[in-house]
Fold this sequence. Notes:
Layout: E1 2-7, E2 14-19, E3 24-39, E4 45-55, E5 61-69, E6 73-75, E7 82-84, E8 87-91, H1 109-123, H2 127-144, H3 152-161, H4 167-185, H5 192-217
Antiparallel strand pairs: 1-3, 2-3, 3-4, 4-5, 5-8, 6-7
Helix pairs in contact: 1-2, 2-3, 2-4, 2-5, 3-4, 4-5
Amino acid sequence: xxxxxxxxxxxxxxxWLPCGQCNRNTRHKVRHSVEVNGEEDWGYxxxxxxxxxxCQGCDSVSFRESRANSEDTIDDEETGKSFPREAxxxxxxxxxxxxxxxxxxxxxxxxxxxxSETHSALCNNQPVLTxxxxxxxxxxxxxxxxxxxxxxxxxIDDLVxxxxxxxxxxxxxxxxxxxxxxxxxxxDPHSEKTLNVAMGVIEHLLDDVxxxxxxxxxxx
Length: 220
């Protein structure tokens, strides 16, 4: 096997990447890069890139890792040609428009921990774990609020009886329960778009149930 290492091959190249500070996709310029190219005797070849990237919007610095090989390709229908499928990882991991909730210290400790782990799973492209985490969050909120019922469905309905949720809010939460069930029992991964919407719903729930009441209680 032959392997070569090249410095700064992609220096000053720009990518559109999600930025954890700007909370959206922004232009990132490569400040420094290392590329590893390898080739096997039987024709298999690959490349790996390690790049320090600089957001052109907020000046934050992060790390991009990408890799591809000659066996994993994508067919271009227009040209009829095949191109290597590039896998990309960003550190710190993030999803555009998906920052962690502020004021996590206002959440109960268990709720905050599960929320942070679920948020991390979403940002690290782990859809099954994200779905399981969303269900766990719903269940933990029900437990923390001592909701009555034999199963999670009844406990969600009891949150309405206790005045913690509206009827409309409970209907939405039932959808989150079903989404989580598919992830937990069927190992069914949902799309990033679906999980982003679900995470937004959960964040609104946590904001309404814990964060806003805690802030309001501080007012005179």
